[in-house]
Design brief:
The protein is α/β, with parallel strands linked by helices. It has two domains: 1-40, no CATH class; 53-227, Rossmann fold. Helix content is 46%, strand content 16%. A seven-stranded mixed sheet has the order 3-2-1-4-5-7-6, with helices on both faces. The longest helix has 26 residues, at 43-68.
Length: 230
């Protein structure tokens, strides 16, 4: 908790351009991990996330409810719970899990049931099965050695998976704490090994609508997977 508060203070005092310069330095992220670990997912970090994604989560939740009609949904790596809350406001029973203490605090404050869960450790997602298991911009934060286990956790918890994961962007560089940026084909193949197929129609429909409603780019490219029949 103290590390998170101290990091928050540094983050608030440091101008945005300066923070971006530090992020561009090869030595910065390893040092940050040693000094602060997961405390970088702090109060001010999530405040920025909610501000940037406020309009996007409304459109995403509208599409999910209209097109996938979930009754119960698990939000894996729920962050501050803003997407969970938008879905709950549309009548979905939502449960969240996250590794960050600050994420759990913020999600709980929004009235969403949430618990601590480490995706790198053995275990099953609590409360399964769900109609939909959703995970937005979490996969790339796990080292590649955990990718198979991550997919297994998702696919064991529901029949439909809604996934976004950062792809390599050579012009932008690797995002902070992004350990496994991969093209969509990588996740499609891992899902195939777990007997899940890409629903191409739903994926195309979602991407068209989200692009048309100006959803922030990294959230506008979901992949929708369904368990293979038979």
């Amino acid at each position: 908790m103290l590390r998170g508060s101290f990091y928050d203070l540094l983050r608030r005092l440091c101008p945005y351009r300066t923070r971006q310069w530090f992020k561009s330095q090869a030595w910065f992220e390893p040092l940050l991990r040693i000094a602060f670990g997961n405390s970088v997912y702090s109060k001010s970090y999530y405040e920025d996330v909610e501000r940037i994604e406020a309009e996007s989560v409304r459109h995403i939740s509208d599409w999910i409810v209209a097109s996938l009609a979930p009754r119960r949904l698990m939000d894996v790596g729920c962050g501050p719970g803003h997407l969970s809350r938008a879905l709950a406001d549309r009548g979905v029973e939502v449960v969240g899990v996250d590794l960050s203490d600050e994420a759990i605090r913020k999600t709980s404050q929004k009235g969403i049931p949430v618990s601590h869960f480490d995706l790198t450790k053995p275990g099953v997602l609590p409360g399964a099965p769900y109609d939909i298991v959703l995970s937005c911009e979490v996969a790339e934060h796990l080292e590649e050695r955990y990718a198979g286990g991550f997919v297994e956790k998702l696919t064991n918890a529901g029949e439909t998976i809604y996934l976004t994961a950062a792809e390599p962007e050579p012009d932008q560089g690797i995002g902070m704490y992004h350990f496994n940026e991969q093209p969509n084909a990588y996740w499609i193949e891992l899902m195939r090994k777990s007997d899940f197929e890409l629903d191409e129609d739903a994926t195309r429909d979602a991407r068209m609508l989200l692009a048309d409603t100006s959803v922030i780019a990294y959230l506008a490219k979901p992949m929708i997977f369904r368990r293979r029949a038979g």
